[in-house]
UniProtKB/TrEMBL annotation:
PANTHER family: 23S RRNA 5-HYDROXYCYTIDINE C2501 SYNTHASE, PEPTIDASE U32 FAMILY. It holds the Pfam family DUF3656. It comes from Methanobrevibacter millerae. Residues 389-510 form the Peptidase U32 collagenase domain. This is U32 family peptidase.
């Protein structure tokens, strides 16, 4: 059993110190730019340097998130920023952008790359590709199940999320915030539209808001898997959250070394939306509310105007006290209050007999908590009887957090051997330090004041040892002090203290030097570009009948509707190939954007069967090895396009702006390799979390009555939520062609047969004529 690394989120310098003290073995943080949590406090470059020094002193690794999509205009700037991070000595960087991975390998090859969960690496093919690109670690999607993780074969380190917020969509596959509010999750500015109320089948609920992940009880199972690191989510959470969550997981992991299990209620007392084991255990539960839920402690058995009686669950150890906060939830209603007076604890028996008598033994079962409501409490507008009660704030926890904040400790201390001697009667101190990574370094200091023959008293060996043993808050563990001094001379004690402090400072400086690297400014050169003038259209469909009607396009991307049968897939494609054979377009099989290994294996079987039947077909896939790349690959710059050498055509991200499109076409090496989605429904979310099986009408409605169609993926395991309005760049098509774009696609999946007419409408728009403007009135240009 291998105890995994415990990785903590750090949103500020204060948070860093708490994470170290609480027992993190590594931390992840972000600079002011290029991180997926732009609204956290984050770090300047100088602060990152100081953070790295402090963390390395405590044997804690530092990973910096540079896990947003990088725009064409930012490439050189971000590359030099990464070079600064390498010089500072960060242990690794988390990357989402494919082009950036290639650029790091070319210009900063010794900088360790961790693939961000934003890259959505859910199958072996993607993992193999990243390993071939010198990526050292991959952060797996939160949607991966235990058995899927178990089957991964790789030399890369695997990292999984173990605690914190869950997105409804696969990370990197959500465009909802971007399209609905102009704030992109792929650029670190997600507005969290998933935490809002939606209507589904005439019911209003937090359908897109999962409970928070908690794998605390699964740590033994995780340790038995090939998982290098478990990650706590929460760079925008409070200091209390960080201190409690990291310290609780650290204690549990330490116990695991001795094969002991742990229990805790404290995780529920800091921010959570309720807990779930998530897809790791193939479960999904939506949150009851978007905010903090707390620890469920019992149920209201009587509610009067000035008094509330709560039957406390027998397994609860955190009994509420004065100053604590409570939340009452009953159906869709909730009510919060702070306990203003000392509550009374009695037995259920006493309560039923109306003998309200305090009990001392708080371990006994069937306890009832009596809380007085005072005038200052906000009035509740529903009957609290039968409400579930949650403890949301625990005052006594603040004391424990303060202790963690101030204790100045670390998970693993460096081992220090000191040797004290005299050099020409001057005190001399040498230290040999062994770090947690087994690297050794040494430093020595000679004092400036000589030892003298004592007039009154000498300074003994024991006195010197005592002074040298003072650690001055340095995270060293002194394992040995060698004394080459007979104790017969005198020197002021302050001189011994001085050389001790100088030695400790010197060792800290030597630790920093171990990690620092030299840097040179990076200047990118532009390659020669190849230009094609032939305009070509592509059309997406999942309807066999469309294939005989479609004409005037170069490519048709065909998606198979939901099925769990290999035979039906083979027959569907066989008929499609036969129908398309006499047509003048190339038929391309669009694989699902999310494909776990079970589905990948089925798709490979289908392709093999078709090849044997002499029905070969090219593939559109986002696994970094396909022939054609969908927009789900989140391509935002020419370096990402160039890195995907195997692809003939790649659709760039539809969430880019006009200026980004201009920059890409200006700098691309081959304009015929780029395609733009100009018309159709955009996939806002891809999710592995379903809805209630009783749901009939698969349309999601937001607070403004916008309707978002929902479709099932090929496997039926994932859902795709489409935008409420079609993307339409009909008014921009002429301009886009004029600046060099030649490939345009129209998405006609889940549309009626008349949608095929869009092909001719767009061709005429290239000549400046836009017919049927009325049909575009409810469309959007997205972020264009």
């Amino acid at each position: 059993m291998r105890i995994p690394e415990l990785l903590a989120p750090v949103g500020s310098v204060e948070h860093l110190k708490i994470a170290i003290n609480a027992g993190a073995s590594s931390v992840y943080l972000s600079g002011k730019n290029y991180g997926a949590r732009k609204f956290a406090e984050n770090f300047t470059l100088n602060e990152i340097h100081e953070a790295v020094k402090l963390a390395h002193l405590h044997n804690v690794r530092v990973y910096v998130t540079v896990n947003t999509l990088i725009k064409e205009s930012e490439i050189e700037s971000v590359l030099n920023y990464l070079n600064e991070l390498y010089a500072i000595g960060v242990d690794a960087v988390l990357i989402q952008d494919l082009g950036l991975i290639d650029l790091i390998n070319t210009h900063i090859p010794k900088l360790k790359i961790h693939a961000s969960t934003q890259l959505t690496c859910e199958n072996q093919r993607k993992i193999d590709y990243l390993e071939s690109k010198n990526v050292k670690r991959v952060v797996l999607p939160r949607e991966m199940r235990k058995e899927e993780i178990e089957n991964i074969q790789t030399n890369m380190e695997l990292e999984i999320f173990a605690h914190g917020a869950l997105c409804y969509s696969y990370s990197g596959q959500c465009l909802m915030s971007s399209f609905k509010g102009g704030r992109s999750g792929n650029r670190g500015t997600c507005a969290q539209p998933c935490r809002q109320l939606y209507k589904l089948d005439n019911k209003k609920d937090y359908f897109l808001s999962p409970r928070d992940l908690c794998l605390y009880d699964e740590l033994k199972e995780i340790a038995e898997l090939n998982i290098k690191c478990i990650k706590i989510e929460g760079r925008m959470r409070s200091k209390e959250y960080l201190a409690v969550v990291v310290s609780e997981y650290r204690k549990a992991l330490n116990k695991l070394k001795s094969n002991k299990s742990s229990k805790t209620e404290n995780l529920s007392l800091v921010f959570n939306r309720g807990f779930t084991k998530g897809q790791f255990k193939n479960t999904y539960q939506k949150s009851l509310r978007p905010g903090h839920l707390g620890l469920k402690i019992g149920k209201v058995i009587e509610a009067k105007k000035s008094q509330i009686a709560i039957k406390i669950d027998d397994n609860i150890h955190n009994i509420p006290q004065k100053g604590d906060g409570l939340l009452f939830i009953k159906g869709k209603n909730d009510y919060g209050m702070e306990i203003s007076q000392n509550p009374l604890i009695t037995s259920l028996n006493h309560f039923n007999k109306n003998k309200i008598k305090a009990i001392k033994d708080l371990t006994r079962k069937n306890k009832v908590l009596i809380i007085k409501k005072v005038r200052q409490n906000k009035r509740n507008d529903f009957d609290l009887t039968d409400s579930n009660v949650y403890l949301t704030k625990r005052n006594s926890l603040a004391k424990a957090v303060k202790e963690i904040e101030n204790k100045g400790s670390s998970f693993i201390k460096s081992k220090l051997i000191l040797t004290f001697s005299l050099k020409n009667k001057y005190p001399h101190l040498k230290g040999r330090l062994t770090l947690a990574n087994h690297k050794e370094l040494s430093f020595e200091v000679t004092g400036t004041v000589k030892f003298e023959t004592p007039l009154k008293r000498n300074v003994s060996q024991e006195t010197i040892k005592k002074q040298l043993s003072k650690l001055d808050n340095y995270p060293y563990q002194i394992t040995q002090i060698n004394m080459n001094y007979d104790g017969s001379l005198f020197i002021p004690i302050k001189e011994i203290n001085k050389i001790r402090r100088e030695l400790f400072e010197g060792l800290a400086s030597e630790i920093n030097k171990l990690y620092e690297n030299k840097k040179e400014k990076i200047k990118l050169t532009k390659n020669n570009s190849k230009r094609n003038d032939e305009i070509a259209f592509s059309y997406y469909t999942n309807n066999l009948e469309d294939l005989s009607e479609i004409s005037g396009v170069k490519r048709v991307y065909l998606e198979i509707p939901q099925t769990d049968s290999i035979n039906s897939m083979v027959n569907f494609l066989k008929e499609a190939i036969e129908t398309a054979y006499p047509k003048d377009y190339e038929l391309i099989w669009k694989w699902p954007d999310i494909a776990h290994d079970d589905l990948i294996n089925s798709l490979k079987k289908v392709r093999g069967i078709l090849n044997k039947m002499h029905y070969p077909i090219n593939v559109m896939s986002n696994d970094f090895n396909g022939d054609y790349g969908p927009y789900s690959m989140n391509i935002a710059n020419t370096h990402s396009i160039n890195s995907l050498e195997n692809y003939k055509v790649i659709t760039i991200s539809p969430e880019l702006r006009k200026k980004d499109y201009e920059d890409i076409i200006k700098n691309c090496e081959d304009n015929s390799k780029i395609e733009l989605l100009v018309q159709g429904s955009v996939e806002l979310m891809k999710t592995r979390y379903g809805f209630d099986k009783k749901i009939k009408n698969f349309e999601l409605i937001d607070g403004k009555n916008n309707i978002y169609p929902i479709q099932k993926s090929l496997s039926g395991e994932e859902l795709i939520i489409f935008n409420s309005e079609d993307l339409s760049l009909i008014e921009e098509i002429q301009y886009l062609a004029s600046i060099g774009y030649v490939n345009f696609s129209i998405d006609g999946r889940f549309k009626n047969k008349e949608y095929i007419n869009m092909i001719d409408i767009y061709k005429e728009a290239l000549n400046g004529k836009i017919k049927n403007k009325e049909i575009f009135k409810n469309s959007t240009k997205g972020n264009y």
